[in-house]
Amino acid sequence: MNVERKAPQVLDLSRSGRSGPVLEIAASEASELIASLFLLTAEYGFETYDLPTETLEAAQAGIPADLKATLEDLGAGSEVMAQLVGLVAELGGPRDVPSLLAHVEATPAIEIQMMLLGFYQHPHPEAPPELIERAARGDAAAGEELKRSAEGHPDWLPELTNLLALGADRIKAFLQEILPAWYRDVWPKLGVDMAELEADAAAKRGQITKLPLEQLIETATNGYQFTPDPITRRILLFPSVILRPWLVHLDHKDLKVICYPMAESAAEGGTMTPHQLARFYKALGDEGRLKLLKRLGQGPLSLMETAEFLGVAKSTAHHHLGLLRHAGLVVIREVNNDKSWSLRRDLLPQAGEILNTFLEG
Description:
Layout: E1 10-12, E2 22-25, H1 29-40, H2 53-61, H3 65-74, H4 78-83, H5 85-89, H6 97-106, H7 109-116, H8 129-136, H9 140-149, H10 156-166, H11 168-185, H12 194-205, H13 213-221, E3 224-225, E4 234-240, E5 248-252, E6 255-261, H14 274-284, H15 287-296, H16 303-310, H17 314-326, E7 330-335, E8 338-343, H18 351-360
Parallel strand pairs: 2-4, 3-7, 4-6
Antiparallel strand pairs: 1-2, 5-6, 7-8
């Protein structure tokens, strides 16, 4: 695949008279490759993604048997795949797949294992970094303690257990086998247009002198509110068409990495396209989500509180909140790994206007 290679554009907000971390907005072939791994190895359907379901199903069905077996040996689930974005964030220059493969080769195996175990999250939601490092280096007691800390997370516990059992060298060897095979055999089937991602990143960079940092991030992500903290020194924004309309973000060392959904083009005259309008009203077309919006009008909710309010599993509550966020109706705020969702009141009066503009256009 031919990818136009450009040096990343880095925007240092402190040099423009504003305090804060260094912000970089760049299209990345490597992050999209990781996103495709994240998506196609997840154990849920494709109906909520923007890419055609038939395209995703064909790509998944076309994963070679030996590659699928290696992925199963790694125990690669969504938590593991998401952490791999940290390797992309460490790259300098063009963040393409050949650069990622070279970086994996050069990175010590123990560093990769600790990264996948969450060592570089700040703060780790369940375990202190020194416990993770001891477990990664073979301390059996630390490994058991680390697994106990994850007992409340049934999706993560099997992945954690497998990562500890495999050890650093086997994990790195698996990745060195998986990544080039995925790039060769699966990635081309998805038809990602890197020029579109470059254009989206350039459009976001064009807003840097017009918007404060927090507003720029909230606008780009359509609802993620960044909270400054003493650890984050750099913020990386990667546009994604693979994950659209969903959002993936993680902390890695002193970085905040956000893979945000690439913006969709508006119809002629700046109105919503039929697809965009249908998504907007789909977010409103559910009794539970309408009740949730009304409750959010009284104050923010955590994911657990949302699940309890709706009487559903956390995964289902997350799905409802994601649809509302992408429709621009709620915002998500994260402080020290604690997330909360709030009503975005500025869009509510426009709901009727949006339909009228579409019908009259």
